[in-house]
Automatic annotation (TrEMBL):
The lineage of its organism: Bacteria, Bacillati, Bacillota, Bacilli, Bacillales. It comes from the Bacteria. Transmembrane segments: none annotated. It comes from Salinicoccus jeotgali. Residues 388-416 are annotated as: Disordered. This is DUF3991 domain-containing protein. SUPFAM superfamilies: Zinc beta-ribbon.
Amino acid sequence: MKEYSQKEIQQLFKERKPIPKELVTQAQKADLIDVIEKQGDVVIHVSDKYAKLAEHDSFVIDKQNNSFFWNSQDLKGNPINYLRSVHDYSFRSAIKELTLNDEYKTAEVNVDKEQEPFVFRPDELSEDTSVAKDYLVNQRGINEDLVDTLIDKKLIQQDHNNNVVFLWAKNKEVVGMDKQGTQPDKRFKQVVKNSDEKQGFNITNGRPENLYVFESSIDLLSHVSMYNPPNARLVSMTGLKPQTYYHAIGQIYEETKQPPKNVVFAVDSDVGGESFMLEHINNKIEHRESDRTVQNFVASPRHQNFEQLGEPSDLKSWHQVKDFNDILTNIQSHDVKMQYQPVVLDKDTYFDTIDYQSKYERVLDKLSKEATNSKDISSWKIAKSIAQEQYPQKNSKEKSEAKQKSPSGLEVNDIL
């Protein structure tokens, strides 16, 4: 296959000639992670095989195949598709960027390997937990007694770099871990290599008749600090991972021989969280033997009753709330914090609150007119479009300017 030189590529674009297939193939060989990082996006390395974008939890990178799949957008592809879908490049400009910029590495696509099992190494954890406790209690506002209890149970620990470590337990066995940095001027989040993707940090209070799902371990602990629901299992998906949500339901069934009575979606109040919730909240999970149908509820952070909380301490208004840690750290009165009663809405009430039916009809009509095939009106596309109406996002230019103005201390480290 012909490899085009830089001079030939320059001439081709200068003369605005049609792009030959060989040049498209050449562009596809650019190392995807290298392209992503040079575009200014932050990559979190989940394992030897997979990575994801810090800004988009559902954007998963397959390192060995030099490709990605973006669950929240129902998109997948190669470096060309990445530039077009994330950074609004045209097809021609994407080819030009990937081939005329000789800074990009060339990817070596490897044969797919089976993921190795997670190996828990206690020697990588410190006996000291003082930094982790100080961070959780004094910076993130987590209840001190709760932190002490989880440290005693070895579910929260600290590594030798003073990061908080959340241990994922399944049947009293550690099957994974995620880490949270404790330095305020540096961002550090990490899922430790080979952690079981179906699991997550979790707490069980009594018999797990109810399932609460959160996006992060900090969100989970923030909710429990204000309200610890009885007879419940609370699970962090470490992002928006449907496999963790479904696995948690299956695990409760394995333990109790019944599915949970209720699932409560306590995900972030933003486009990603809302999209995830709207796609999965209509799932009808039934258990024929017990004649039980799982009921779905919403504990959206932005739909809480903030009148009971007073004025926020740091946010300009409660309208800026994104997650439960935002709520926890903005309640000024300790007494109010201890008496907080979260608002949990059943699915139908929540739909009425956001005027779901009219939004659904409007979005469906719009997507149907624009559709070229059935994939263009998938359940995820509908959920995403409704979520975007509720949480309008900045355009690509504004995002790019925001990135350029972001502090140089931002850092997301690789998996160990």
